[in-house]
Amino acid sequence: FKFVLFYARRAFLTKGKKMAKSLHSFSKFLAKAGSNVQGKTFVAAACVPQTRNYSRGSKRIKVANPVVELDGDEMTRIIWEKIKERLIFPYVDVDCKYYDLGLPYRDQTNDQVTIDSAEAIKKYNVGIKCATITPDEQRVEEFKLKKMWLSPNGTIRNILGGTVFREPIICKTIPRLVPGWTRPIVIGRHAHGDQYKATDYVIQGEGTLDLVFTPAKGGQPVKLPVFNFKKGGGVGLAMYNTDESITGFAHACFQYALMKGWPLYMSTKNTILKKYDGRFKDIFQEIYEKEYTGEFEKKGIWYEHRLIDDMVAQCLKSSGGFVWACKNYDGDVQSDIVAQGYGSLGLMTSVLVCPDGKTIEAEAAHGTVTRHYREHQKGNPTSTNPIASIYAWTRGLDHRGKLDGNSELQQFATKLEKACVDCVDKGKMTKDLAGCIYGLKNVKTEHYLYTMDFLDAIAEEYDSQQ
């Protein structure tokens, strides 16, 4: 890649048509090399972080402490590098502790790089992550993997704890399926336990289903009758959650609401699941009264528990501007409904907030855009939406600025986000967003920009606002 950079500089300086043409051909060669090339980019000999240095002069904003950069896969990996080159490092002087979470390198290190990256986030408090592949059987075959590795997001979340908050990016020109949502609705999903860690069973024939708890320190087991199957079989399910996990979820939600300065609502169906959902309700209320009431009142915000059906109805009638704490299944469903309600799944940020309120990991809420990557491998330009990936950087840098007391860095993050939105509102956008306005069948080439042109437009918009 040093050779590529040398080649690029030479083409730029000489302005020779032949050299530029050769560079284009070499770029197409790199694209066609596919997953092997993308997996080996910037690979370390051992599973250790790398510090990136991007010298752009003395006018860049100085950042006192590092951030942890987690690289990813496919089209988002390609765009990730361009975002840094065009929008981040020309303006910010920051030490990035780099971890390659591209699938080939995860496989090469037996996924140790993912574990190491999470530990680094613990140390430095800020992680900024590119979208990654979670392998299925097809990917195992495609990449010739040693095994079907777990989701890196899940691995990182298990190490850090915390809650994932998804927030929409609102652009005036993008039609909303729910027009009244003029302010963001943030979904905080408790991604632990419940149906996702349940034990289910198909019951054959008649019999009795019981729920049994056996105390670890001795004592009489507790046996609760569930159902007596008298007319043939059926199905049964047992699920759980823990006080520790619910408590961590509550703290993360209260911390995030304070960060945003918005009220917090927590939804359950405690009228039906009086003990199970009632436990969520009680823990949230106890923590709020003991630790957060004063801080919430100072900001003029509040916490309130709502029944899930009431909350869904209230959400549709509202104008937004609140944080919604959801149990696991509710959060899974409602986050996608809310995302689509704002007009585009490509305009959705994702931030993992730990219970301490100090440690976060920011990323785009979408995947690696495989279909566009296949076109890129053929040497074809794509119109891939980079906004959510840009917001991963801005949200991470904003938090770094908050921790360091660096208001200049926070202002940079705010201004870059504004430049993204202003570009779209001025009619400069990628094809997916143009499709939201005109309908994909009616989109013409004059309606959208290719990815690199769009990044240039954002940079120009940012510079024009200085």
From TrEMBL:
<dbReference type="Pfam" id="PF00180">
    <property type="entry name" value="Iso_dh"/>
</dbReference>
<feature type="binding site">
    <location>
        <begin position="151"/>
        <end position="157"/>
    </location>
    <ligand>
        <name>D-threo-isocitrate</name>
    </ligand>
</feature>
<feature type="site" description="Critical for catalysis">
    <location>
        <position position="269"/>
    </location>
</feature>
<keyword id="KW-0521">NADP</keyword>
<dbReference type="GO" id="GO:0000287">
    <property type="term" value="F:magnesium ion binding"/>
</dbReference>
<feature type="binding site">
    <location>
        <position position="385"/>
    </location>
    <ligand>
        <name>NADP(+)</name>
    </ligand>
</feature>
<dbReference type="GO" id="GO:0004450">
    <property type="term" value="F:isocitrate dehydrogenase (NADP+) activity"/>
</dbReference>
<feature type="domain" description="Isopropylmalate dehydrogenase-like">
    <location>
        <begin position="66"/>
        <end position="458"/>
    </location>
</feature>
<dbReference type="InterPro" id="IPR019818">
    <property type="entry name" value="IsoCit/isopropylmalate_DH_CS"/>
</dbReference>
<feature type="binding site">
    <location>
        <position position="139"/>
    </location>
    <ligand>
        <name>NADP(+)</name>
    </ligand>
</feature>
<feature type="binding site">
    <location>
        <begin position="132"/>
        <end position="134"/>
    </location>
    <ligand>
        <name>NADP(+)</name>
    </ligand>
</feature>
<keyword id="KW-0464">Manganese</keyword>
<comment type="similarity">
    <text>Belongs to the isocitrate and isopropylmalate dehydrogenases family.</text>
</comment>
<keyword id="KW-0560">Oxidoreductase</keyword>
<dbReference type="InterPro" id="IPR004790">
    <property type="entry name" value="Isocitrate_DH_NADP"/>
</dbReference>
<dbReference type="GO" id="GO:0006097">
    <property type="term" value="P:glyoxylate cycle"/>
</dbReference>
<feature type="binding site">
    <location>
        <begin position="367"/>
        <end position="372"/>
    </location>
    <ligand>
        <name>NADP(+)</name>
    </ligand>
</feature>
<feature type="site" description="Critical for catalysis">
    <location>
        <position position="196"/>
    </location>
</feature>
<protein>
    <recommendedName>
        <fullName>isocitrate dehydrogenase (NADP(+))</fullName>
        <ecNumber>1.1.1.42</ecNumber>
    </recommendedName>
</protein>
<dbReference type="GO" id="GO:0051287">
    <property type="term" value="F:NAD binding"/>
</dbReference>
<feature type="binding site">
    <location>
        <position position="317"/>
    </location>
    <ligand>
        <name>NADP(+)</name>
    </ligand>
</feature>
<feature type="binding site">
    <location>
        <position position="309"/>
    </location>
    <ligand>
        <name>Mn(2+)</name>
    </ligand>
</feature>
<dbReference type="GO" id="GO:0006739">
    <property type="term" value="P:NADP+ metabolic process"/>
</dbReference>
<dbReference type="GO" id="GO:0006099">
    <property type="term" value="P:tricarboxylic acid cycle"/>
</dbReference>
<dbReference type="GO" id="GO:0005739">
    <property type="term" value="C:mitochondrion"/>
</dbReference>
<keyword id="KW-0460">Magnesium</keyword>
<feature type="binding site">
    <location>
        <position position="189"/>
    </location>
    <ligand>
        <name>D-threo-isocitrate</name>
    </ligand>
</feature>
<feature type="binding site">
    <location>
        <position position="166"/>
    </location>
    <ligand>
        <name>D-threo-isocitrate</name>
    </ligand>
</feature>
<dbReference type="GO" id="GO:0006102">
    <property type="term" value="P:isocitrate metabolic process"/>
</dbReference>
<keyword id="KW-0816">Tricarboxylic acid cycle</keyword>
<dbReference type="InterPro" id="IPR024084">
    <property type="entry name" value="IsoPropMal-DH-like_dom"/>
</dbReference>
<keyword id="KW-0479">Metal-binding</keyword>
<keyword id="KW-0329">Glyoxylate bypass</keyword>
<feature type="binding site">
    <location>
        <position position="332"/>
    </location>
    <ligand>
        <name>Mn(2+)</name>
    </ligand>
</feature>
<feature type="binding site">
    <location>
        <position position="134"/>
    </location>
    <ligand>
        <name>D-threo-isocitrate</name>
    </ligand>
</feature>
